[in-house]
Amino acid sequence: MGPSAGGSRVAVVEDDALVRATVVDTLEEAGFEPLACENAEALARALAAGRQPELIILDLQLPDRDGLAVAGSIRSSSDIPIIMLTGRGSDIDRIVGLEIGADDYIVKPFNPRELVARVKAVLRRRVPGAVRTAERRRGYRFLGYALDLEARRLTDPDGQPITLTVSEFDLLTALVEARGRVLTRNQLLDLMHRRNDDVFDRTVDVLILRLRRKIEPTPRHPRLIRTERGLGYVFDAPVEVLAET
Q1: Cβ-proximal residues to 27 (8 Å cutoff; 6+ apart), any chain
Q2: pTM for the structure as a whole
Q3: Does residue 199 surpass a pLDDT of 60?
Q4: Among 93, 197, 236, 239, which is least packed by CB within 10 angstroms?
């Protein structure tokens, strides 16, 4: 089992010294171990030195490298959760960040309590068994895919793991558990525990596109996750409930 949220190392990649200090102090007060990085190069040095964080808070406006490029580079080789720091109104950056594989975003200026809540939520969803330690393992199987809710893992029909971000896993779980029923974007956000004032409509759409690329044989003509125009999305496949006693 991975670490609990408390005491987890969180990299803070932010070039603004005041904002970086605020985030670092907020995380320390909440019991985390912040790793302050003033730019992308500092993060790269920390990772090369083996200082692996459990989560990365990443400003998208960095002086030495575009934050979206940094997020894409991280996601290409790691499933470390990424929370983006974005400016208010920068929907395009948020959409691109979600497409690349970020798990959440926080709009500046932000409430410190909200930041801590977001960090805890992402880490809690990432740690296998963190919430259901006393429950039996359970999951679902569909068209040869196996979705393990305890290990938070998806395997393909050949038994090979498919890498999902925290948000992708939560969205797939919500869809599978409501199989055959159309869910609106707001319902999906509720089931993913992602309802907040800064969530925009495209969030679910972007995550759906990412999921389709990973599990649909032909993403442009989806069979598993269908769009019901004007309504939302529906998971349309036979599902077998898995459980261990």
Answers
A1: 10, 12, 33, 34, 115, 116, 119
A2: 0.64
A3: no
A4: 197
